[in-house]
Amino acid sequence: xxxxxxxxxxxxxxxxxxxxxxxxxxxxxxxxxxxxxxxxxxxxxxxxxxxxxxxxxxxxxxxxxxxxxxxxxxxxxxxxxxxxxxxxxxxxxxxxxxxxxxxxxxxxxxxxxxxxxxxxxxxxxxxxxxxxxxxxxxxxxxxxxxxx
Length: 148
What we know:
Layout: E1 2-7, H1 13-24, E2 32-37, H2 45-53, H3 68-73, E3 76-79, H4 82-87, E4 96-99, H5 112-138
Parallel strand pairs: 1-2, 1-3, 3-4
Helix pairs in contact: 1-5, 2-5
């Protein structure tokens, strides 16, 4: 099973989702997890730090741009922002697409403490969504749109 997380720049939200999926997925799922962006903006150090605080190391993950091959190989595609959802290329038949309309923590304003709090909240929201998605996949259920 190939799981692909897609966002605008593959620097925060999709990186965190990839990290959580790798961390939380049971080996029995045989899950191949990737993340990509419509563009590649590089990794956000605050996202790396927020995930490390939760015991998940995403520092070695790469910020990559979506390729046709990645899209064709996906079984489940999760768009994690409106921009990626709107600009995602046509999804091949057989690929289940799920949309999570997540706010971009990189746009947070304020002092370092306030911005870090936004990254932590985003990290925790993404963890809960990934855990629910993995539970669906593990139970053989088709993931439903969890945007509600």
